[in-house]
Write a structure and sequence with these properties.
Number of strands: 13
Number of helices: 15
CATH topology of the largest domain: Rossmann fold
CATH architecture of the largest domain: 3-Layer(aba) Sandwich
Shape: globular
CATH class of the largest domain: Alpha Beta
């Protein structure tokens, strides 16, 4: 008897390749094509189109969906697409239009992923607001994937039943390691001396990512006499303000802004310690996981999913959010203790291989799909 093929359609409203787009591409690269016939609906002109087609997967372009969780145009377009293609499962990546269209088209099962962590509005967590939110949420889907337990908590706080939500951590492909000569050359490119430590933060330059606390911590570490450079990689609305902040703190000599990087893997390779100072929206940072894949210790804030990824004295340290002194203290602890760095580096690789590979994530997602199909 042959294997039953499951028709699965992912829907994503992102035009650019952000965290949700990388999550989707990771799944598509590793999906089991013997059991799943996978297609994807994206906004017209999305940067994801070329990447998805390069994997040999069918792509449908949808009008009116770009960067919108809900759009009547997108609902109508997706409704027609679902009727035509008849997927057994629609997996919406933060796209409410897809869930509504899926129900209207009587798609068998609808799944969506909660990618971020942020406190829900208070009126949605109690009384009639919670009941309405939970009822509406459960009406529009058969199962929810949360990329961290903190993300699951956000969903259940607004009335969705716990059994509807499964925690499936993000997974990534391990980074390729570069040679010592390549590391020295890349450091030189960024203006970093060969014998200087590198502490990096890879995140959108937005308020909730906590870059000011990172810059303040960099000043404390520098004043302690440790020879290090602090690299801020990424772009965002606060780039000019953060550059000025570093200047005002007399930190411009040792804080480096790279802007957008196409070679983030090289930066992670030269990094000695990764930092994450987020105090909003953080669920399961892909850059932290990539760092773990090549043994990079991390110091992270105790917000969202960070404490689920990083464990004290195992693969790094967790410090109170919005606390530059504790962030600096943990960085100094690591950078001044070579034996501790080596121990944590080794454990970081082991934890990655046990929990956060792309293969583990994909396998868990596909088991969830099968479980969802097993019962109404």
């Amino acid at each position: 008897m042959g294997i039953m093929i499951i028709k699965l359609m992912h829907v994503i409203s992102d035009s650019n390749i952000g965290g949700a787009g990388k999550y989707l591409l990771t799944y598509l690269k590793n999906c089991n094509r013997r059991e799943f016939e996978v297609s994807v609906a994206v906004p017209k002109g999305s940067s994801l189109i070329k990447e998805i087609k390069g994997l040999g997967i069918t792509v449908y372009e949808i009008d009116g969906m770009a960067e919108k969780s809900i759009s009547l145009t997108a609902v109508w377009q997706l409704f027609k697409l679902f009727l035509k293609c008849k997927p057994q499962i629609v997996h919406a990546n933060a796209c409410l239009s897809a869930r509504i269209a899926g129900r209207l088209a009587m798609v068998n099962k609808i799944v969506y992923t909660r990618h971020s962590v942020f406190p829900p509005k208070e009126f949605l967590t109690k009384g009639i607001g919670k009941w309405l939110s939970g009822t509406f949420g459960m009406l529009l889907c058969d199962g929810i994937i949360a990329v961290a337990a903190a993300a699951k908590q956000n969903v259940t706080d607004t009335g969705v039943k716990e059994e509807k939500v499964e925690v499936i951590y993000n997974g990534v492909d391990g980074l390729a390691e570069i040679s010592d000569e390549e590391k020295i050359a890349y450091k030189e490119k960024l203006g970093i001396e060969a014998d200087e430590y590198v502490v990096s933060i890879i995140a959108r330059l937005e308020l909730v990512k906590g870059h000011e606390y990172f810059i303040d911590a960099a000043k404390i570490v520098n004043d302690s006499g440790i020879k290090a450079r602090f690299v801020i990689a990424g772009t965002g609305s606060r780039e000019d303000a953060l550059r000025q902040y570093a200047k005002d703190k007399n930190a411009s000599d040792f804080v480096i802004f790279t802007g957008f990087l196409t070679d983030v893997g090289n930066l992670v390779n030269i990094t000695d310690v990764q930092a994450n100072a987020s105090f909003g929206t953080e669920a399961a940072s892909l850059s932290l996981l990539e760092g773990m894949s090549i043994g990079k210790p991390a110091v992270v804030s105790d917000f969202g999913g960070n404490p689920e990824l990083i464990l004290n004295y195992e693969n790094g340290f967790v410090v109170p959010k919005q606390n530059s002194n504790e962030l600096a203290r943990a960085l100094i602890k690591l950078l001044s203790d070579k034996a501790l760095m080596e121990k944590i580096s080794l454990e970081s690789r082991q934890i990655f291989n046990q929990k956060f590979t792309s293969e583990i994530m994909t396998k868990n997602m596909e088991e969830f799909y099968k479980k969802i199909l097993g019962g109404r």
